[in-house]
Amino acid sequence: MSKSERSIETNAVHGAGFIKSLTGAVSTPIYQSATFKHRELGVSTGYDYSRLSNPTRDELEKTVALLEGGKDALAFASGMTAVSNLFAIFKPGDHIVISDDIYGGTYRYIEEVLKEYGIAADYVDTTDLQAVKAAIKANTKTIFIETPSNPLMKVTDISAVSEISKEWGLLTIVDNTFLTPYLQRPLDLGADIVVHSGTKFLGGHNDTLAGFIVAKDDKIIERLKRIQKTLGGVLAPFDSWLILRGIKTLAIRMDKQESNTEAIAKWLKTHKKVEAVYYPGFEDYPGHEIMKKQSSGFGAMLSFTVDSEDTVKRILKEVKLVSFAESLGGVETLITYPFVQTHGDVPEEVKESGGITKRLLRLSVGIEKAEDLISDLQQALG
Ligand SMILES: *Cc1c(COP(=O)(O)O)cnc(C)c1O
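That is the input. Now the predicted structure with pyridoxal-5'-phosphate docked in place:
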């Protein structure tokens, strides 16, 4: 059975296994070496210098490529390093169509860096395919989507957007951080490139930053490898090992986090101080059917609005088991206040009009016992 025929649960545990095939090491060794010796001129082990490639990082890159169904992957020092390296394939005069409910750091990168370099972007509600088509211009190069989106959990149809891209000769890029390849494989659905913050569910332990780009086209991979080698924002050997170790338990973590999320979403919906729960697992949620078609689960993220800013303050002060902290995807449950944290640099009117209000909270659900999490939220909500 080839690796690509095996289930993702199995591949997550065993990884690409290329070092194991050479040395037998069950746990990938950490090749903590900046440089590699050559035997003579023109004779190399394949390794020269760790900015170009490193065996531990190679094992991780090959593993992530295997999980996403890509030809190859590149590992970076953070999700934002992956995003910024990816955008380096565009040039002044190019135009990007991007989801309006996007990760705050990606928004800041476009607004503060790309626009200064002459790359234009329009933010559209990519759940609306007519709006996506209407935003395409003669110089558009890509449609960049996040689904479900952050923090409003809006669901974009990946296949439908990929069809539009193909028609216009554009690249479809999907930020797959929220679901990971265990629950959603954008490349199988027609996307060209997947980008990740590996800091989140892939790493899964809130202990290290990482980022990935996965692609299926050789030319794109070659271009990105040149950019990675030139900009140098690579993932260190030890951090590569931490992410490899995290990925081994991806499937069981995601299963537990998902079932906890469903339980909390249902409970929140019944609370008198909770006005709305953004959770795509609800049958009447917009995008629920699309998500059922393109994903094998609803993930472990949800957002909710409460009756007042006082309630927000109370919850953030009173939670004991749940940590009031930025980030997501780890085994520990975290609560985030998008208005001032993840989306702090998005202008107020943009946030408010999009639904990121001062009464919105985001929850990243961990692997604790669901009942314990609910009772903590219960006492914090009051
Ligand atoms: C966190 C995050 C990023 C940025 O990743 P870092 O590892 O924090 O640099 C990008 N996209 C999404 C959806 C994220 O959640």
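The pocket of pyridoxal-5'-phosphate is lined by residues 78-80, 103, 105-106, 146, 150, 175, 177, 197, 199-200, 209, 211 (CB under 6 Å).
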